[in-house]
Amino acid sequence: MVELKGVSKSFGMKRVVKGVSLQIPKRQVTTLIGPNGAGKSTLLSLMSRLLPRDEGEILIDGVPLESYRSGDLAKRLAILKQTQHLNIRLTVRELVEFGRFPYSQGRLTREDRQQVDRALDYLELRGIQGKYLDQLSGGQRQRAFIAMVLAQDTEYVLLDEPLNNLDMKHAVQIMRITRWMVEELGKTVILVLHDVNFASAYSDYIVALKDGSVAATGTPEELIRSDVLRSIYDMEIPIETVGGCRVCIYFTGAKVSGL
Question: Is 34 left (phi over 0), alpha (psi -120 to 50) or beta?
Answer without folding.
Answer: left
